[in-house]
Sequence to fold (446 residues):
Amino acid sequence: MAQALAHADDATAAPPQQGGALDRLRIVGGQRLNGAVRVSGAKNAALKHMCAALLADGALRLTNVPTGLRDIASQTALLAHLGVRVDAQGADMTLRVNRLTSHTAPYDLVRKMRGSILVLGPLLARFGRARVSLPGGCAIGTRPVDLHLQALRALGANVLLENGYITATAPQKGLVGAKVVFPSASVGATENLLMAATLAKGETVIAGAAREPEIADLAACLAAMGAVIEGAGTSTIRVQGVPSLHGAMHRVMPDRIEAGTWMIAAAMAGGRVVLKDADTQHLAALTGLLAAAGVTPTPATGGDLVVEATGDRPQGVDIMTAPYPGFPTDLQAQFMALLARADGAALVTETIFENRFMHAPELVRMGADIRVQGNAAIVRGVPGLRGAPVMATDLRASVALVLAGLVARGTTEVHRIYHLERGYENIVEKLRALGAEVERVPGQFA
Ligand code: UD1
Fold:
């Protein structure tokens, strides 16, 4: 159960209390997608950069922040609680710690999003202590954060788990650099350690580091603040600790998962979609698989990427998620939606998160033929999907249902779209601009 709920960016978030929480999306399928779409800044990078502001003596100015996202709002609320002044205007955000008002990241703010655990390293490194609620709703206590804790202990922190909270204190003279060997790659643990190491005394070597581009982007942001880091984006990162970090400016990298989602959408629906601000280098694994399925994205002038497709059934191709540079788990649900109406069968293997298949039964409600067994799913492509009322269960699952709705016959209603709003900025507007027939319908799910 704990594993099933351990989807990093998808959390077990309870529905937010404010109005609109239970709105749904109504999609009439069958429209082709045509036009240009600008990819927003990466949520999974911006969330970490925001935490890095805790390390700086001056203001950290971030640009290209997807400020419209619910997760960014949650992180803003958490940082404001700690005493960080956060000013956002459009996609610009300035964060400054004038005076830390709390060392505690409380349950109510943390449970909404797992990315909040990234305040742990910075608080500990700069202020000597941190108390952070264990993330996750009903999975509390079992949701793994062991690698984060192992890493901070290696730098000399005293770490206790009590009453659902992680309590960490640094030795009196501060954290001390060390060699940390991760037994398996964890994005969050690598990032927590990287941030903590910037202010630790001496050298920290992170072996077995995760290689996701968001880590390299975080390192670039930290370097702009005065940190000394080598090797971010590879499996060995070296950090030379410095006494303090200063304010800086950094542009958040484009969201590769959003870009990938648009690529899959275009491949499914047909038409011609131009992606603005997508970093194609980060999408090589997806591009290769899309080509095998019959749709080859092509680079265009000015760094744009064009996805042109007939909307005919794609070929079934097997996918297996893996740490970067492998196929991202955060695109598995979307690719499964594409495979649902492929010509042929395909095996989807999920190696990062067990049971990350909550979208499968919902796709089946739309006529898909999917059989899940353990960490694999066999998707036998059907000629067409049918619109149906479906339930979003997490962030990437919910967008997969939207994609299925775009190609289904008739009307699909995706309930609980607050999940979607955690990670897709202006998704309704973006879809409509491409010609999709989508509207947001207020109301309760009966
Ligand atoms: C991040 C992303 C998430 C993405 C995931 C994998 C954010 C906010 N989220 O999540 O969208 O799906 O990377 O690319 O950036 N694990 C442990 N012990 C730990 C930490 C992790 O066993 O202490 C396990 C996890 O349960 C999982 C695997 O390691 O099976 C990878 O998780 P990790 O890379 O840490 O994911 P997150 O950083 O949480």
Observations:
- The pocket of uridine-diphosphate-N-acetylglucosamine is lined by residues 6, 8-9, 44, 47, 114-115, 144-148, 184, 186-189, 210, 329-330, 352-353 (CB under 6 Å).
- The longest helix spans residues 256-269.
- The chain has a mean pLDDT of 92.
- The CA atoms of residues 298 and 363 lie 29 Å apart.
